[in-house]
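Budget justification aside, the reviewers requested a transparent look at the raw inputs and outputs of the sequence design task funded under Objective 1. We therefore reproduce one unedited record. The lines immediately below are the structure tokens for a 172-residue chain.
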């Protein structure tokens, strides 16, 4: 696992006593497994009426690993508080998947911190475009993506949870 630089040192929402670190990890090992299980339970509760489950949307630990992908875990003093991954969509495009922030840490800038780190990972992996999706019951995620420069695009993956699809072109 490689340690990534702290990106949002000037984020006013992240308090000085929040010692956030972000590290590459495997989605198939701890703490990724626990974070992803919590995310799946939350999504299954939010979208209980849908015919499908989180498992129906491919984003395997292998897909979110080198050479074409990455999986990151954000921790506060060693306690995992968020995760997210990148997988290859096509030769030019990375897709952000499984982005999740523990409920107690929402609204504190952790999602933006993680999103920026995932964008850095996309550039490192050689992608010049990022795609992602979010559901109708996740307005704060939609607001985050829009405020980070993602623009709406048509449905590109038939995700039964998704109601909004976004894309961003990377500067690098």
């Amino acid at each position: 696992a490689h340690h990534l630089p702290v990106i949002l040192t000037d984020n006013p929402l992240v308090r000085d006593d929040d010692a956030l670190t972000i590290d590459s990890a495997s989605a198939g090992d701890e703490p990724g497994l626990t974070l992803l299980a919590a995310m799946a339970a939350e999504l299954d509760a939010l979208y209980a009426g849908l015919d499908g489950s989180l498992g129906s949307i491919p984003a395997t630990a292998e897909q979110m690993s080198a050479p074409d992908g990455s999986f990151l875990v954000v921790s506060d003093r060693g306690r995992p508080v968020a995760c997210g991954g990148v997988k290859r969509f096509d030769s030019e495009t990375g897709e952000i998947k499984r982005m999740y922030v523990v409920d107690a840490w929402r609204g504190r800038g952790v999602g933006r911190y993680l999103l920026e780190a995932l964008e850095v990972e996309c550039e490192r992996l050689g992608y010049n475009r990022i795609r992602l999706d979010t559901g109708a019951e996740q307005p704060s995620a939609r607001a985050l993506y829009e405020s980070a420069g993602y623009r709406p695009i048509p449905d590109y993956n038939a995700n039964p949870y998704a109601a909004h699809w976004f894309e961003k072109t990377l500067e690098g």
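Residues 68 and 88 are 6 Å apart (CA to CA). Helices lie at 32-46, 110-124, 139-147. Computational costs for records of this kind are itemized in the attached budget.
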